[in-house]
Design brief:
The chain is an all-alpha fold and 350 residues long. Helix content is 75%, strand content 1%. It has one domain. It contains 13 helices and 2 strands; from the N terminus they run ααααααββααααααα. Strand 1 and strand 2 form a beta hairpin. The longest helix is centred in the middle third of the chain and has 29 residues. The protein is globular. The relative contact order is 0.15.
Length: 350
């Protein structure tokens, strides 16, 4: 009898989107950072606002600035995304100020609450597609079932939060969709059923030697963070902070990795600065650059506008949400993995 050997891969040879060290930190390290932060706040609630400030200045604002390294740090990117830079922003400014003028600040807060949930979910979906594209020989679900499994926990989470009818969010007035608790509970049972099916399918794929190991690890953390942030955590603001840290850090690292792959051949004469700070071993310089720009944009420009034209916290919130809403729209255009250029840069199969 001849034994049939099942091909195996060493840990370092798994289909990472960058390498074992980077991806392990990206997948598990960021989840751990979010969970540890939440535990610290639960033990010492007075640390919430200091931690929130740190998150905003070193992750939140920073991750928005990272977007601009994709669309305007070099001539080619700026020409490709010119409208997103000079045309879209004025539209977002006028629309946001119009909503506040007509309906009030609570509308902007409510839009942000639901839009950030969708934005976080879509970013995670894109990253999951990147991991899936690195291991096309593995066993996956396809079509509507694939999407239903992925969105099951996030949808359960936002329906549960809506059913709870929290009156405030980050200390500001919030309106929530009037979701019946029964509907939220029903979505939970659906999510549980889909997750059980997914786990059984992963066991079957393992038996067949076709388990997408890295993709499975990422999916587990995706389910975990949305469950912890929207369902397991009773405090709506603490739950938001958890997933906000995870999302922001994800984005910063993914953008740097994309730029690093884009300029893998070395410093590009047509994009000297961006290609220089995107080389391997210079992540620290990329982060430092974004932090410096964050200081100029958020502390300088926005604070000056706030001082000249508005007064108080409400105006600052509106200004920050203008930047966030613009960022959400830009991201929806520049990170589509079905584009051949994106697939080539990230070394993904179509």
């Amino acid at each position: 009898m001849t034994d049939t050997a099942v091909p195996t891969q060493s840990y370092a040879e798994l289909p990472w989107i960058r390498n074992a060290r980077f991806d392990t930190g990206f997948i598990f390290g960021l989840l751990a950072l979010s969970c540890i932060t939440a535990l610290v706040i639960l033990v010492e609630p007075s640390l919430f606002y200091p931690i929130l400030v740190i998150d905003l200045w070193f992750l939140g604002y920073h991750h928005v600035i990272s977007t601009f390294t994709r669309i305007c740090f070099d001539k080619e990117s700026f020409q490709e995304h010119r409208f997103l830079m000079v045309g879209l922003l004025p539209i977002v400014i006028v629309a946001t100020l119009g909503v506040v003028w007509i309906a009030g600040l609570w509308v902007v807060v409510t839009i942000y609450f639901y839009w950030q949930w969708y934005h976080y979910t879509r970013q995670s979906w894109g990253i999951s597609r990147a991991y899936r594209g690195k291991d096309r020989e593995a066993s996956y679900e396809d079509g509507w079932l694939d999407q239903a499994i992925f969105y099951a926990v996030p949808v359960f989470g936002i329906l549960s939060r809506s059913a709870e009818q929290h009156p405030t969010f980050i200390g500001m007035e919030l309106w929530s969709f009037p979701v019946p608790p029964l509907l939220a509970n029903l979505s939970g049972y659906v999510a549980m059923g889909l997750l059980i099916y997914w786990l059984i399918a992963r066991v079957r794929a393992t038996a067949e030697g076709r388990l997408a190991i890295v993709h499975t690890m990422y999916m587990m953390t995706h389910f975990a963070i949305f469950y912890l942030a929207y369902i397991a955590t009773s405090d709506i603001t603490l739950g938001w902070l958890m997933i906000n840290i995870w999302h922001n850090a994800q984005y910063i690292l993914f953008v740097w990795m994309y730029n690093n792959k884009r300029f893998s051949g070395g410093v590009d004469p047509d994009a000297k600065f961006l290609s220089y700070i995107s080389q391997s071993g210079r992540l620290w310089l990329y982060l430092l650059t974004c932090v410096a720009i964050t200081g100029v944009v958020y502390w300088g420009v926005l604070r000056t506008i706030d001082w000249l034209f508005f007064a108080g916290l409400s105006a600052t919130i509106v200004l920050y949400q203008i930047v966030n809403f613009h960022h959400y729209m830009v991201d929806s255009k520049i990170w589509k993995l079905r584009k051949p250029k994106m697939q080539k840069t990230l070394d993904l199969e179509g």
